[in-house]
Amino acid sequence: MSEDVSFKDILMSDHPDELMRKAAPFLNLMMKYECAIMEVETKFNVINNEFSTNHNRNPIESIKTRLKEPLSIIEKMKRKGFPITMESMEENLFDIAGIRVICPFIDDIYILKKMLLSQDDIKLIQEKDYIKNPKENGYRSLHIIIEVPVFLSSGKSNMKAEVQLRTMAMDFWASLEHKLKYKKNIDSANAESIAQRLKACAVLSSDLDIRMQEIRNDIDSKGSGNDEDE
Ligand code: 0O2
């Protein structure tokens, strides 16, 4: 990478032209993260298409993607005590490019992970299995940080991206919990009870996932054999 650029330096510009000139390397880097999102999303769409042809069902219900906002990038680097520069952002933040894959069944999550990681241009950097080890509040999902190559006229860049794989039940819980967390008018007496009730809902949603998986396994084992034989 060329000379490191500080966010403060970009923001100190007092003329629009100067701001655009100084922000150009940042915008170029964000474009590369956006391309990484496109590459990974396409890979999942290809996996889903092939799986659907071979096994007559889709392991992916939906895919959501997001590029982290500049203010969230700065906030996270501050919170973690990293230097607020572009080099630091590339080295320390792994979730600037985010891909969330929602699956019908728990098994689909691990099938998709295996299929993605078996591709020879994908490198696994880190894995956090919050399904096998849920967070204290009940949050479940499989997080993997990967590196994916992006090919531009300037050459190849290996970009990091965070893939979150979860079932529809895990996504339902996480989306509502996320919305509730940002409600500002929860007093501290109420907060404890809310946390406990959310945890109880997480346990229910985990039970639902396990039961639905069991029903599917049962149907598959008695079915025509036209499904996957992983
Ligand atoms: P967004 O907008 O979804 O990206 P951090 O927790 O950020 O300090 P790290 O190591 O990145 O550090 O955390 P982790 O746990 O690997 O993953 C963080 C992301 O997972 C979050 O991103 C959420 O998307 C999701 N997540 C993790 N824990 C919870 C949780 O308890 N509830 C919900 N609803 N989501 C969770 P961001 O950056 O918070 O937001």
What does this structure look like?
β4 and β5 form a beta hairpin. A five-stranded mixed beta sheet has the order 1-2-5-4-3. The protein has helices at about 5-10, 15-55, 70-80, 85-90, 105-115, 170-180, 190-220, and strands at about 60-65, 95-105, 125-130, 140-150, 155-165. It is built from seven helices and five strands, in the order ααβααβαβββαα. It is flat and about 65 Å long. The N and C termini lie far apart (about 40 Å).
How are the SSEs placed, and which strands pair?
Blueprint: H1 7-11, H2 16-55, E1 62-67, H3 70-79, H4 86-92, E2 97-103, H5 106-117, E3 123-129, E4 142-152, E5 155-167, H6 168-181, H7 188-222
Parallel strand pairs: 2-5
Antiparallel strand pairs: 1-2, 3-4, 4-5
The protein binds ligand 0O2.
Residues 95, 98, 128, 135, 137, 139, 143, 174, 177-178 line the site of ligand 0O2.
Q: Which short descriptors sum up this protein?
A:
single chain; alpha+beta; 230 residues
Main pleated-sheet profile: 5 strands, mixed
Alpha carbon gap, first and last residue:
42 Å
Mean pLDDT: 92
Counting helices, strands and paired strands, the structural category is: alpha+beta
Strand order of the largest sheet: 1-2-5-4-3
